[in-house]
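I'm stuck. Protein, please.
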Amino acid sequence: MQLDKAKIRQSFAAASVTYDGVAALQRTVGKALLDTINTGSLTGTLLDLGCGTGFLTSGLLAHARPIIALDIALPMLQLTQTKLDTPNVSYVCADAEQLPLAGQIADGVFSNLALQWCVNLERVFTDIKRVMKPGGRLVFSTFGPQTLQELKEAWGEVDDFNHVNEFYNEQQLTGFLQLAGYTEITVETNAYLSSYDSVLALMKELKHIGAHNVIAGRNKSITTKTQMRRMIAAYERHRAGALIPATFEVMMVTAS
């Protein structure tokens, strides 16, 4: 899987202003992720990897400090800093695939719906292990391959390009973690179903949260009106009543 990292940085930077207004799923998943954590055991320095606008950072801050908030998009970090306004959080603008952090500085690493934007997850997990202190835990959520399956199917009737981002499956994630040296791994997979008035409403939300198609081999030509109409017509076959569905497969992972 090849991703355009410059496009990822640009997309999330541009989405920083609109993100909080439409990121209901991200908040729901973030809350579920926090519910899996034994917050009473949180101590020392925590790293929020891919912090976005700070939802998970704020939740962690209620139970432990200090926290390192790291994100690839500077406007996201700046928004988080403005919202939290506390000396207990330090901010790092960096790619999760190139962590500019010293070894053994974090007692725990947490990430909510961010690691799916990384290509070499074995390297990412190895570097996270370097950053964590012995006995530390990595807890994260990430999208699975069934995410936006309806949109994939609809575009599949138009052409052979990848219009929707691809995500690793549970077996691949577990394999990457094992190669990086993690031995205690648990994965829980859930499907979240969101509903929209129209296909265009779904696509508008994806744009506003920065979830553009960032596959490096995507079709970079402008989509024609005819192609868009064909895709929408194919998607409309999924409509149930007044709404169209969109599936988001989410994996909750704990590793140490």
In short: Residues 5-255 form a domain with the Rossmann fold fold (CATH 3.40.50.150). The CA atoms of residues 68 and 131 lie 12 Å apart. The chain has ten helices and seven strands.
